[in-house]
Structure formats: C-alpha cells, structure tokens
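Q: I'm a student working through a structural biology exercise. My instructor gave each of us a protein and asked us to get a predicted structure, then write a short paragraph describing it. Mine is protein-tyrosine-phosphatase. I'm not confident about reading structure output yet, so if you can add a plain explanation after the tokens, that would really help. Here is the sequence I was given:
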Amino acid sequence: MTSQTEKEFADYDGNNCWNEVFQRLKNESSLLTLGDEYSTKEARDPDNRRKNRYRDVSPYDHSRVKISGESDYINASLIEVPEANRKYILTQGPLEHTMCDFWQMTWEQETRAIVMLNRVVEKETLKCSQYWPLGSDYGYEEEMYFPECGIKVTLSGEQDYQHFTLRTLELEKTESGEKREVLHFHYTTWPDFGVPSSPVAFLHFLHCVRHTGSLETNVGPAIVHCSAGIGRSGTFCLVDSCLVLVENTGSLNSINIKEMLLHMRSYRMGLIQTYDQLRFSYLAIIQGAYVILNGGGLNSLQNHLEGPPPPPERTTSLLPKFEIPSVENLLQNIENLPPPVPPKKSPLQRQAGCSGWDGDPEESSKRWSDAENEDDEEFDKLIDRDEDVGRDSEDSDTERAAEIRHNIREERKRQTLEKLRKMKERQQKSERWRPYKPYFRSSIYFGLAVLVGVAGVLVYKYFL
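A: Happy to help. First, here is the predicted structure for protein-tyrosine-phosphatase. I'll explain a few features afterward.
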C-alpha cells in the first residue's frame, strides 16, 4: 500500500509544483511565528549584531542557546523533536570572532559530535572560519587555544571517506585540566543552496553519525551547522527525525513531513532554504524508509557505494565504538534495490496545476537545475583524460577511482588552505591600514583647504 508521503512526492514531482509547495510552507511558517513568543530581540541587540553571519538569520529568543559569560549570545538554536526523542543544536558557521563562543557552547552543552555540512570556502567565498586545527599534515599546528574561554582544541585523528571526513578532536579546559573528545563529521560534497548528488551517499553519512550514538539522548545534543545553519542543517535534521519515526512505528504513514518541518521551524527560522532541498528531503526519507522497512537498515545502503570505506583510525576512546560496517557484514535480505532517483522535470514539461495547492510560483524563484557535484565533475574529467590507461579488472577500476577521488580531495584541501591564507593576508593588511585612515583623510582635507586658500588669494590679487 502506497503511503501518503509517497503519494505526495509523486504528485508534486509529476506536476512539477515543488515551488508552490515550498512557498505555501514558508507562508504558513511565517503566520505561525508572528507572535511575541517568536521575537529575535537578543539577535538584534547592537552588541550582538556583529555575531550574526547573516542579517536575516536570527535565533528566536525562546529557543536560542545561551552560553555563560558577560554576553550569553550565540547564533544557535535548540531544536526539539519529542516524538522522535531527538534534540539538535543548529548554528551558523563560526565567524573569526565567534569561534571561542562556538567551542564554549560545545563544552557547556556536553556535545559528543559536530556535524559540518559545508566547506570552509565555496565558490571563492568564505562560508565558515577555520575553527578546528588542521594538523601537521598540512603544515599547521595540531592544536588551537582560545584564551577567552580557556579551551584548547587538539586534532587527535583524521580519516577521509568518499563523501566525508571524520576527525577526532580533544577539548581541554585548561584551568581544570578536564578533557573530552568530540567527533567532527564533515560532509564535503553538499553544494550551497543545492542538494547532494545522491540520497544514498547522504543516508550512509547519516548512518555513520547515528552509529556513534552521537544523536542519542544520553549525550548532549549534536551541533549541526552549515553556513547559515538553516538550509543544509535543516535538511539533515528533518530526514533524521522522520526516519526515527519510521523505525519506531514500522510505517511511512506515521510521518507528515510538512507538519514536521513547520514544527522544527518554530525553533529556528528558515529551515530548508529551497524547494530543491525540500524535494531531496522527501526523496531521502522515502529511500531510507524503503531499506529500513525491508529489514536492512541504513547501513545496507553501503552496497550501492563504490566499495566499503576503510575503518576509522582508533586513536581515541570514542572511536572503538564506531565501526563503519564492511561489505561482508551487510544484510542480504533485501530482494529489490531501493528506488532510483526520479529525474526532475523541466519547466517545459510542467503539467496542469498541483492538486491541493493554489497560486503561481514566484517569478524570482530559481528554475529547476541539477545540483552540481564538484567531486563528480572533476572525477569525470580525470577519467576522460586517462581513457587510454588499461584496466585489468573491476578491482583495479575501484582502486583507481578511489585514488583519483583521494587526489581530488587533497588538491581541494590545498586550494582551500591557499585561499584562506590569502583572505587572512588581505584582512590583516586591512587591519594594519585601518588606524592610519583617519590621519590620511585629515591630511587630504587639510591639503584641499590649503589649495582652496591659495587659489582664493591668487584670484583676489589677480582682480585687484
């Protein structure tokens, strides 16, 4: 029997009316959050404005996370989903001057894992400050110290996978010497304002985060962030919460994705920024539910990836619990593969209106476009360039593909570090020049005044 969620997806996809659905949800969310209980007074305080990455993304006062100290403000919201027994902290990518606040929040909330869904630099734009130590492998220090909050962050281990990097960070409160370990899950192939190229890769990432127990209630809430902390972060939390309900009830009929999203938006504004992200959420939930209800679990999706990732480096006390399952341990009781990703129709293929929804799409809305996956584009270019290289077996193909992807990631990291270095140089140059600007401006005004005075004297003498 087809669930309501599947019917909605087929309806919206068939009529290509995701934009209307998304706009309707935005309007409903706006109406629901009009009351005084959804004020953003603290975020608009003059002392706190500089702590916001974007002017139009502010935490509600009723759900904002507070930190100890002279100022308790940080642009972060606690999202609660009681029916799924889940709590998340959604926050923006730290700014240079809010990194200390970020780590203080991590410590005070007893967070076990940080889920980062963006890259530091995307499309030549700094989306997030480098808030964790890069390590000696890239010519940097293994630790960062934040004296304002007395926290030292040390990189203990790092392991690259196909779509994400797992880091183990040690946090130390220098005053007391107390130490804690935090896992840093960094998804590296999710484009800004876009969606991952594959629900399978995303669901496998979600499974890996879940497998560590970092989303359970016996530890502090996981910190989830992208650049603004609403688009990609909202998608992650919506998919996870809905799949928890599917697991608990054994049915897709137990969830209402739109109501769940409206509920989550009552804790943080703007969750899920585009209708592409809404569509992807539906797709990931349906595909994840498919394997769960067939007895496989999200770990079985690894069958559809390019071979199993290597086991993580066991450098800390947390990591021994974290084992990404190998192919040999995957369940074999799924008779059919998960449904393939349905192609999105172009505007030219649009059929008559979407049932159950009124109104026309906003003119300013973006047209459908497939989200670009930079890893895949670069990978395809390298494959095309080396077509003449012989391949002996499927194993060699897989090994070569893995090596190429590894080289791509390493090159991207190198380029990102170079961009960060140049950005910091420009920032430092600007800061060095700033104290002299008032004097330089005064000199210009004085020079102009002298010139005007001399010109006036000359004109006076000329006419006399």
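A: Here are two points you could use in your paragraph. Residues 435-463 form one domain. The CA atoms of residues 211 and 322 lie 6 Å apart. It's a good idea to check both against the output above yourself.
Q: Great, thank you!
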